[in-house]
Amino acid sequence: MNDSSPENFEGYGRRCLTVFAVVMCVTLAMVGVFYANLSSRPLAIGLTLAAAVVNAGLVASYLMHIISERRLIHIVLLFTGIFAAGLLVLSIGAHWSVPAGTIH
Amino acid sequence: MQAITHAEPHSIAHAETHHHGHTDAGFWRTYIFSTDHKVVGIQYGLTALCFLLFGFSLMLMMRWQIAHPGTPIPLVGPLLQSILGDVAAKGIMSPDLYNSFGAMHGTIMVFLAIVPLAVGAFGNYLVPLQIGACDMTFPRLNMASYQFYFFGGIIMLASFVIPGGAAQAGWTSYPPLAQVIPTNGQTFWLIGMVFLITSSLLGSVNILATIIQLRAPGLTWMRLPFFVWAQFVASFLLLLAFPPLEAAGVMQLMDKLTGSSLFLPTGLAVGGHLANISGGGSPLLWQHLFWFLAHPEVYVLILPAMGVISEIIANNTRKPLWGYKSLVYAALTLGFISFIVWAHHMYLTGMGIRIATFFQTTTMLISIPSVIILTCLLLSLWGGSIRFNTPMLFATAFLPMFGIGGLTGLPLGFSASDLHLHDTYYVIGHFHYVVAPGTIFALFAGIYFYFPKLTGRMMNEFWGKVHFTCSFIFMNVVFMPMFIQGLAGMLRRMSDGGYNYSQLNPASEGVQGTLSPFIIGLNNYILLGAVCLGLSQIPFIINLFWSIKHGQKVTSDNPWGATTLDWQTPTPPPHGNFITPPTVYRGPYEYSVPGHATDFYPQSER
Amino acid sequence: MDIPYTIEARPDTGTYNAKIGMWLFLASEVMLFGGLFSSYILLRVGAPPGTWPHGWLNVPLGTINTCLLSLSAITTLMAWVACKTRNLARFKLFHGLTLLLAIVFLGIKSYEYRDKFHHYEVQLADGRVADGHMIENDPKADHIVLHGSYFKNHAELMERHPDEKEAELTIPRADIKHMENYGPWHNTFLAIYFTLTGLHALHIIGGILVIGYLWGPGSKMWYTNPEQFTNRIEVSGLFWHFVDLVWIFLFPVLYLM
To answer: If you write DSSP's letter for every residue of B80-149 in order, what string do you get?
Structure first.
């Protein structure tokens, strides 16, 4: 993206609009799942979260240009992701296999 | 070379504002609202030293109350009463006041004294110098970082004099207790913390970006001084570990201000009555979020100290550090693992046993890189012709003191032994050995070592040695008995120093397992040690200020004969630091290189 | 000496200073919202069965807000492209649009907040619960008027469907045991809802301030240093995309699940 002649950005603009269109479709699908009122709540939650992850992935990789960044930024984000996931998994995991009779 | 060629395309406008801002800046721009990393560093340093003294004096008053419960505090008692009112009636410290002094001692020491001194002061002042940069990457954010820190500190101090006094629920602020104590001290604490977290965020982004972007040409990652590596890892810890506490702080603020129940469980009773809350919250959630910060914070306290120590040891043994690469990889591993050990502070919360096992394992694992670092520093002494000047005395004392602090942590890492030791004086002894004779000694060493670079004068060597000897003795007098008290089962956070649970209390007649008079008697020795420790800081304080004007002048820019770039600057370094942009040709610790004219081979010398 | 790499990228890291600074800041923001999302999950998993609400928020409004924010992400990028191709008028247009979308987003959000504060759960003496929006709540009158419906008990409120029939209910004050509006104090779901969206709204406000500055007074830099100005647009854009990214998770987590 260092060359600033207008032609180079035509393809780029089209790519952004494609990402936007996909994000919109996935969002509508997500809302569709809500209104469909599936009998299995876990399935609905799984589908919704999967859709959210797809949307987030698209925005992060294309609109935030992670896909074309250098290794440095990838490493920073990788470790951030690991620690955030660690916080999530371990703090929730601490409620797992609690010895019987030790209610907190 | 790159810096020179890249410097050209800078716009004129930018260059102008940059130069113009500082050539003829007045007093305010030069000393108060300065964007120069060195001024910001010194501001951080002086403020943090004041907080260090303040936090220490809180503790002195508490030690009096512990050793002589219910008797007026000598000298300061009346003063306390006139400032704080009824909580210090007749100069006697009430249990409420004891609680808030305890909470604020922890908060001030960790968040307002040690971390700002280690990262804010040393990091700000030295990192750009050691990597050959003219300033931090974002000088204005740097200034803002200090200002946020300053206001955070003011808010914390202000909370002492509001009605009801400062926060009383320990520096950990566990809910529900923290939220149901009917004062606004906790709200002040939370708002103050938000300021401090913002400050640390700005500071850590700045240090990281500076190390990543502004290294001098030729200064590759493996040529960085270990101090820079330590700051790098510590800043990453601050960057990524503090936000969850900020989230928790915001949530506790919601609870305090809007009456929500994020941390309050269903069925909570306050003062014997069911609290009027919606319930459904989780007190444990706070502990997870708090310790997710507070454990990495321990390594933020210790890593910069290790960095300072390694500079001083390499310099005063006149030989390269033993195992530079091991040190670097150990610091990185330490940083990584420190994010997944936090729940070893929570074994007694009724955590699941599988996860407890996981945290025990990672806690034992993290001792490996710590031991590697300590071993490397110890082996660096081997065969060196050691110069025992004041900085080196502090640095060598750091090694066994930190060793004691680290090794006494192992029994706390196992959930079985932690059941007995949790919340006793053993824990206090353990982490104070890490931080007080550990980190603070390292920071003292750093102050004596870098003083000539800051001022162009040496600190007095004789009084430095007096300061060292007394501090060394009395630190141990203060903290060693705490291990004995803790093993005997004496709990922390008791305003009567354990009297209630001792054989001295007539009501305990026939009760099993009460504390013996010997254990309680140790409180007197600790008080004596603490007072003497306070007195031994007087030579330091006088020395520090006296030497600015009257210390012996240094004859060269590099009085210790050091190799790193910070000593290749004029003394004191001017705005912009280097006269010509330095280029680096070799590693950071090339001492006693065979065939070289001097026993040190500076990084920037071709 | 000047601080290098303020405009051009450092060859070995591939970024200029501000960009690495912004990414580091965003890493810390990831941890901030990571902590909050972890809290949400922990609170939800820890809630006894049948006490976590479903369908309490206005899904159509949430969907509209999602669209607005995603669209503003695109206009930010278009503004950046306009800077790259040195077209100031286009930049002003697209960044103006971003600002407008952000303000509309906040407007809708504050309407939703207001809606929650007018929404009351009224526990009646006979054990039933009336739930709906307050229409009349005159302290002197002996009754209140609610637009909503009756439920058998509090537990029935947890599962709401968009097609519920609502009517105007007049309730004598004598029948009311307890009533409370849907603020953060009402239950844990609303507490975490207000915390998460409130913090997100603060980020939106911060974004509006920065974007507004760059659109208005800050755009003077265009004439002196267009390259650095373009970098500023890119970096502030990164922040704005992150705010969008957070909402992409907030919407399904709070509104749909």
So the answer is: HHHHHGGGGGGGPPPHHHHHHHHHHHHHIIIIIIIHIIIIIIIIHHHHHHHTT-SS-S-HHHHHHHHHHH
Contact (CB<8Å) A87/B244: yes
CA distances from B67 to A14, A92, B56, B58, B537 (A): 75, 42, 16, 15, 22
- Please name which of B257, B250, B208, B260 lies closest in space to residue B229, comparing C-alpha atoms: B208
Q: Do C4 and B205 touch (CB under 8 A)?
A: no
User: What pTM was estimated for this model as a whole?
Assistant: 0.94
Tens-digit pLDDT profile for residues A3-35 = 555 667 888 999 999 999 999 999 999 999 999
C-alpha neighbours within 13 Å on the C-beta side of residue B558: 16
Q: What is the pLDDT of residue B126?
A: 97
User: Cα separations (Å) of B49 from B46, B110, B121?
Assistant: 5, 12, 10
Nearest partner of B566 among B231, B209, B328, judged by Cα: B231
Buried b (16+ CB within 10 A) or exposed e, B61-99: bbbbbbbbbeebbeebbeebbeebeebbeebbbbebbbb
Low-confidence ranges of chain B (pLDDT < 50): 1-22
Within 193-212 of B, beta carbons closer than 8 Å to C belong to 201, 204-206, 208-209, 212
Say how many CA atoms lie within 13 Å of B315 toward its Cβ: 30
Q: Which chains touch A (3 or more CB pairs under 8 A)?
A: B, C
| Burial class, C167, CB count within 10 angstroms (exposed 0-12 / middle 13-18 / buried 19+) | exposed
Angstrom CA distances, B187 to B95, B159, B390, B497, stand at 20, 9, 43, 28
B291-334 residue pLDDT tens: 999 999 999 999 999 999 999 999 999 999 999 999 999 999 99
Write out chain A residues lying below 8 Å of B289, CB-based.
91
Q: What is the pLDDT of residue B26?
A: 83
pLDDT (tens digit per residue) in A25-80? 999 999 999 999 888 999 999 999 999 999 999 999 999 999 888 899 999 999 99
What pLDDT score does C1 carry?
Answer: 66
Q: Which ipTM was obtained for this model?
A: 0.95
Residues 6+ apart with CB under 8 A from B72: B90, B91, B92
Contact B258 C39 (CB under 8 A): no
Those residues with Cβ within 8 angstroms of residue C206's Cβ, 6 or more apart along the chain or in another chain:
C239
Neighbours of B365 (CB within 10 A): 14
* Beta carbons within 8 Å of B341's beta carbon, 6+ residues apart: B295, B359, B362, B363, B366
Q: Which of A77, B180, B194 is nearest to C245 (CA)?
A: A77
Chain A residue with Cα closest to C84: A4
pLDDT score of A1: 46
Q: What integer pLDDT is reported at residue B183 of this predicted model? A: 85
Q: Give the nearest partner residue to A9 out of C71, C85, C248, using CB atoms.
A: C85
| Residue A1 near chain B (CB below 8 Å) | no
Report CA torsion sign: B237, B238, B243, B245: positive
